[in-house]
Amino acid sequence: MPTATPALPIIGPDHWPSPADFAAPPTAADHARWAEADRAARPQRLARLRERMAAAGVDGYFGLRWEHMRYLTGLPFDESEVTGAGDSGKFLVTLDEVYVLADSRYTIAVRRDAPEAKVFECYNALADRWPELMATAGVNRCAIEAMTIPHLVWEGLAAAAPDVELVPIEGWVEDGRQHKEPSELERVAAACAVADRALASLLPSIRPGVTERELALDLEWRIRTAGGDRLAFDVACLAGPEAALPHGQPGDRPVKRGAVLLFDYGAQVGGYRSDMTRTLFVGEPTARDLGVYGLVHASQEIVFDRLNEAIPLAQRGTPLPVGRELDALARSVIDADGRWPAYGHGLGHGIGLAVHELPGLGRRSPADPLPRRTVFSVEPGIYLEGETGVRIEDLVAIDVDAGRMDLLTRFPRDVVVVGL
Question: Do 92 and 193 share a domain, yes or no?
């Protein structure tokens, strides 16, 4: 038998959230303070990596991922820059130095944004310059991010300097990045507030006939002009049956009365991302869609309850839940109801410099307790192919030492009706 879920409040135009309900955009002073916090934190970040290097008996760590480079050196690349950067932005950490590879397009940026690093000039000639880089840095055993480096590049480096042992590794920097510093959590929260305000300001523009693509562009404009540096990722705006695609693209499909409208989007502030999904109702909700929404809401709520219970226990020494346990808990609510299948993706993921990072909350996520101070998404969903889809996604920050669990995404999770 279906499980009874409590009726949720229905929010119409008279009670819509206002942009003023959410935190104001970050100021120039906020950005300066965050930049200084990063500068102060980088020595400890590097120290953690060097401890891993020493324990593994390697004297070099060659990084290719832009988020690791920004985290460890300060050079503010992201994925949009890396695609045309060639070898620039790759970096080498030794036991006492940091080298950043750069061609003439980036040498000024490296000297300005990564002043503690040494510039190693390289223009699309990594294999040719590899022996000199290894000799200059005094590296004999070099750990390399094996999930990122192409096989042909690995083979080229091995052939270029056969006396340098290449050691495939993964997870050394990722593990440290999931333990968030206070200023990192501040930036994720600021990005969430930008996204909350943007959607609140968009609500009056949602009406039958407007297309997914028009709404996605409008939402992007509101993010970029109200405190966001840029999008965290491309806006997904999906109407009616298209909402059954967990990762769909907005098209020229018009919004229709009586259907759901799903937004999955995020802002970026100071390099850090937000990620939120809200499923709105265009006109009077159908009983079926209300039932789906209420069940998804209940599966998310039980996770929040479990986390609130776990934090005081963790203060007394009990490990926090494992991500895969929370995933199973959320699924159990949908499975017990029995009317519709539970989501096929993971319950959630960490977020920060990248949209998806550790910790993981999925069926195959690491069997490690959640970090004591971190941020991650909780995003259960139900997808009915050709009919409808509902996902509710929020970012949760936990800080065991402070005894806190905060929802950073604060746009209402109740039933929001638009287009009346």
Answer: no
Q: Where in the sequence is the domain holding 107, given as residue range(s)? A: 57-177
Q: How far apart are CA 41 and CA 341, in angstroms?
A: 44
Does residue 375 belong to any structural domain of this protein? yes
What per-residue string of b and e applies to 236-253 under the rule 16 or more CB within 10 Å gives b? Answer: bbbbbbbbbebebebeee
pLDDT for res 85: 81
Taking the whole predicted model, whether its pTM rises above 0.85 is answered as: yes
Q: Are residues 276 and 353 in the same domain?
A: yes
Question: 300 with 169, same domain?
Answer: no
Q: Tell me the residue ranges of DSSP E strands in 72-170.
A: 91-94, 98-102, 118-121, 141-145, 165-169
Q: Is residue 127, in this structure, part of any structural domain at all?
A: yes
- Pick the closest to residue 181 from 317, 353, 52 (CA basis): 353
pLDDT band at 79 (very low <50, low <70, confident <90, very high): confident
The strands making up 230-231's β-sheet, listed across from edge to edge, are: 230-231, 267-269, 272-273
Q: Is residue 301 part of a domain?
A: yes
Domain membership flag for residue 47: no
* Tens digits of residue pLDDT in 84-112: 888 898 999 999 999 999 999 999 999 99
Q: How far apart are CA 139 and CA 106, in angstroms?
A: 24
Same domain, 195 and 302: yes
Q: Are 390 and 380 in contact (CB under 8 A)?
A: no
Query: Cis ω on the peptide bond leading into residue 359 (within 30° of 0)?
Result: yes
Write phi, then psi, for 16 (nearest 5 degrees). Answer: -55, 150
Q: How many domains is the chain partitioned into structurally?
A: 2
Comparing CA positions, the residue from 146, 181, 170, 140 lying closest to residue 52 is 170
User: How many other C-beta atoms can be found within 10 angstroms of the C-beta atom of residue 329?
Assistant: 16
Polymer length of the chain: 420
% of the chain beyond a pLDDT of 90:
92
